Automatic annotation (TrEMBL):
EC number: 6.1.1.1
Species in which this protein is naturally found: Amphibiibacter pelophylacis
Protein name, entry field: Tyrosine--tRNA ligase
Keywords: Ligase
Upper classification of the organism: Bacteria, Pseudomonadati, Pseudomonadota, Betaproteobacteria, Burkholderiales
Claim: Ligase is one of the keywords in the record: yes
C-alpha cells in the first residue's frame, strides 16, 4: 500500500531550488497538504523575512507510551524543524478531558486529570527522541482553554454550525445508526481548532483520521481574523501484520521505549513489501538513497540486507549505535538457533515437572493445550534441542526453554 500522491500547485514567481527542496520535504510520504499554493506562499514569506513558520502538532496523552506509528508525524515535524522552522509540541491536557471522538462508533470515556498528568510526563520525553529539544516549543492547551470560561466557550461554539458538525463521517454514521453522540463531543474539534488560533500556527500536522479537526483550525483562524493555517496529513502506519494500523490494542506495534533487541527483531519480522512503506514513513534516509537501495534489491540483492539497515537505523535512533549492533548480533544468534543474551530468569519448584506445566508456569505459553500444540509442531526446544515428547518431565536443575523463534526463559527447577 502506498500513500496517494499529494496535489501540487503551479510554481509561483520567485520560486527557488531551496524552496522546491522545502516543498519536496514537506510532501514526502504525506497523504495531503492543503492548500499547496498557500504553503508555497508561506515558505516564500519565511525565506524572504527570515521569520520561521510555526508548525503545530497536538497529541492527547491518552496512553503513557508512544509507538512507531506515532512517530510518523513526529518525523515530519523533525524534517520541517531541520528546515529552520519552529515546531510546537502541544500536549492536549485540556482536550483529553473531553476525549477525541475521531473514528469512534461510541462515546469515548474521558481521562481523569490524574491519568492525563501521569501520561503527559512521559510523552515529551519519548517524543524528544525524534525532535530536537533545543528547537521545540512545548505547550499545554489548558493554558488558554481554562481561561476561556463559560462565556468564551459559548462564543466559540457560535463560530460553527451543527449542520457542518454532522457532516463529519463518524458523527454522521453514529447519528444515522441510532448511536448516541454526547454534546461535549462537539466541543473536541472546536477546542482543537481553537488551539491553532491561540498558537497562530502556520501549519498543523496530524493523521488522516484528524482531517476534520485540522480543517476546523483553518475555519476558526479565519473567524478570528488570522491567516488560516495549512494542514498536512500523514498516513496511518500499518503495524507488524501489514494489515491494520499500528495499535497496542491489536498487539502489532513497536514501542519506542522497547528494549533494543526486541525492537530490532520486530522490524526484521515485517514483510519485504511492508519494509518499503516503513522506509518511506520512518527512515531519515533520502528518497534517492531509498530508491537506489530498492533498485539493488529488485536487481537481486537480498532484501534482508535492506531490512537490517532499517532495523539498525530505527534501533539506533531510540537507543544507540552500539545497542543496534548488539541487537543485530543477538538476532543473528537467534536465527542460528542460539540462545540470546537477555533471557528471562524463572525459578519454579515441584521437580520433576511436566514440560507442559513448565511452559505454562514460566509464562512462555498461556495454557496446557497451547503447550501441547507447540510441542507437536516442533516449536519447543530445551537447551537448543527440539522436543517432541509431550509427556516429558524435567528434573531439578537449570535449562533454557525456547518457544518459537523469540520466546526464551532460563528455568531453574527445584
Amino acid at each position: 500500500m502506498t500513500a496517494p500522491t499529494p496535489a501540487t500547485a503551479p510554481t509561483p514567481d520567485g520560486w527557488t531550488p531551496e524552496l522546491q527542496n522545502a516543498l519536496d520535504i514537506s510532501l514526502r510520504g504525506c497523504d495531503e497538504l492543503l492548500p499547496v499554493a498557500d504553503w508555497q506562499r508561506k515558505l516564500m514569506r519565511a525565506q524572504t523575512s527570515g521569520q520561521p513558520l510555526r508548525i503545530k502538532l497536538g497529541l492527547d496523552p491518552t496512553a503513557p507510551d508512544i509507538h512507531l506509528g506515532h512517530t510518523v508525524v513526529l518525523n515530519k515535524m523533525r524534517q520541517l524543524q531541520d528546515l529552520g522552522h519552529t515546531v510546537i509540541f502541544l500536549i492536549g491536557d485540556f482536550t483529553s478531558l473531553i476525549g477525541d471522538p475521531s473514528g469512534r462508533n461510541s462515546t469515548r470515556p474521558p481521562l481523569t486529570a490524574e491519568q492525563i498528568k501521569s501520561n503527559a510526563e512521559t510523552y515529551y520525553r519519548q517524543a524528544a527522541l525524534v525532535l530536537d529539544e533545543s528547537r521545540t516549543e512545548i505547550r499545554y492547551n489548558s493554558e488558554w482553554s481554562d481561561a476561556l470560561g463559560a462565556r468564551g466557550m459559548i462564543q466559540l461554539a457560535s463560530r460553527y454550525t451543527v449542520a457542518r458538525m454532522m457532516e463529519r463521517e463518524d458523527f454522521h454514521k453514529r447519528y444515522t445508526g441510532g448511536q448516541s453522540i454526547s454534546v461535549h463531543e462537539f466541543l473536541y474539534p472546536l477546542m482543537q481548532g481553537y488551539d491553532s488560533v491561540a498558537l497562530k500556527s502556520d501549519l498543523e500536522l496530524g493523521g488522516t483520521d484528524q482531517k476534520f479537526n485540522l480543517l476546523m483550525g483553518r475555519h476558526l483562524q479565519a473567524e478570528y481574523g488570522q491567516e488560516p493555517q495549512c494542514i498536512l496529513t500523514m498516513p496511518l502506519l500499518e503495524g507488524l501484520d501489514g494489515v491494520d494500523k499500528m495499535s497496542k490494542s491489536k498487539n502489532n506495534y513497536i514501542g519506542i521505549s522497547e528494549a533494543p533487541n526486541s525492537m530490532f527483531a520486530k522490524v526484521m519480522s515485517i514483510s519485504d513489501t511492508l519494509m518499503w512503506r516503513w522506509y518511506e514513513l520512518l527512515s531519515f534516509e533520502s528518497l534517492a538513497a531509498i530508491a537506489a537501495l530498492k533498485a539493488e534489491v529488485d536487481a537481486g540483492r537480498n532484501p534482508r540486507d535492506a531490512k537490517v539497515q532499517l532495523a539498525t537505523e530505527i534501533t539506533t535512533r531510540f537507543h544507540s549505535a552500539q545497542a543496534a549492533a548488539d541487537a543485530l548480533q543477538d538476532f543473528m544468534n537467534r536465527a542460528r538457533g542460539g540462545i540470546p543474551d537477555d533471557v528471562a530468569e524463572v525459578t519454579l519448584s515441584g521437580a520433576p515437572m511436566k514440560l507442559t506445566a513448565v511452559l505454562k508456569q514460566a509464562g512462555l505459553l498461556p495454557s496446557t493445550s497451547e503447550a501441547l500444540r507447540m510441542i507437536a509442531q516442533g516449536g519447543v526446544r530445551i537447551d537448543g534441542q527440539a522436543v517432541s515428547d509431550a509427556g516429558l518431565e524435567l528434573a531439578a536443575g537449570t535449562c533454557v526453554v525456547q518457544v518459537g523463534k523469540r520466546r526464551f526463559a532460563r528455568v531453574t527447577l527445584s
